Amino acid sequence: MSEMKQTDQSRRQFLGGGAKLAAGVTLAPGVMLYTAPVAARPAEQAASSEQRWGMLIDTSKCARGCNACVSGCQSENGWGPESGDEGNSNEFQKAQWIRKVELKNLSTGHVQSLPMMCQHCENPPCVDVCPTGASMKRADGIVLVDKHICIGCRYCMMACPYKARSFIHEALHNQKEHAPRGKGTVEACTLCVHKLDAGEGTTACAEACNAEGHKAIIVGDLKDENSEIAQAVVQYATTQVRADLGLNTGVRYRGI
Q: Residue 152 belongs to what domain range?
């Protein structure tokens, strides 16, 4: 088996999983959308370009001062305070897979709160500048970092217009099996790829937001016209952050 095939097989095994989910969601009062069961993708099966995983965030439902999405991501993926390994880090060196930011309209004073993470671009700058291929985009649109070949050069961090990537300065312990991390490598939001590959059809941040009753985050397949997210982006005006860059982000926002 060639080295390229071995690497590809390793990635598939690393990103695989198994489970199924059926869900009903309310689009409007009295209108219910029943989504088909999301099949788990076998570990040996490559991601398919027939899907485009994405996220829609409604900023009108995102509460100022609420950090449920951040806490949910930390707990699920084992970074930040949940890791127990970043206590001595400089504030600017700590990991940030997702963070809350506030936008202020200088003419009106109106302030909006929204979560910011890797935007899972169709044309990701981080992938373009990576010298080893560690920064990669799966066929289904999820942008990831292969920790086995990341050399920590941080070119991807400089190229990302969303400040979505972090460099790990500390030795790490008690990591999550589904979210391996490593000192001297770069990391970012994975769109909870382990949950999507397992057929759960959601992310930890969306689950945490729903648990708080805000329901500001929708996750799904943008290419599936029957999915909640695909129908929502057709029905409502949505915005890409820095759309002028032509990156065609997988994360869209309402209300900004």
A: 3-254
Contact 19, 196 (CB under 8 A): no
Element (H, E) at 86: none
CATH number at residue 27: 3.30.70.20
d(C-alpha 98, C-alpha 223), whole Å: 25
CA–CA dist 35, 70 (Å, integer): 27
Q: Tell me whether strands 251-254 and 53-58 are parallel, antiparallel or unpaired.
A: parallel
Separation CA 105–CA 111 (nearest Å): 6
For residues 40 and 74, what is the distance between their CA atoms, to the nearest angstrom?
A: 24
The pLDDT tens digits for 26-55 are: 444 433 444 445 566 566 677 778 899 999
Number of structural domains the chain divides into: 1
Residue 100 token pair: 């809350």
Residue with tokens 């991807």: 156
Neighbour-count burial for 195-225, b at 16+ CB within 10 Å, e otherwise: bbbbbbbbbbbbbbbbeeebebbbbbbbbbe
DSSP β-ladder status, 53-58 and 217-221: antiparallel
Q: In the beta sheet, which residues pair with residue 167?
A: 186
Helix axes 204-211, 68-77, angle to 10 degrees: 140
pTM (global) more than 0.90 = no
Task: For residue range 92-123, list pLDDT tens digits in order.
Answer: 788 899 999 988 888 898 888 999 999 999 99
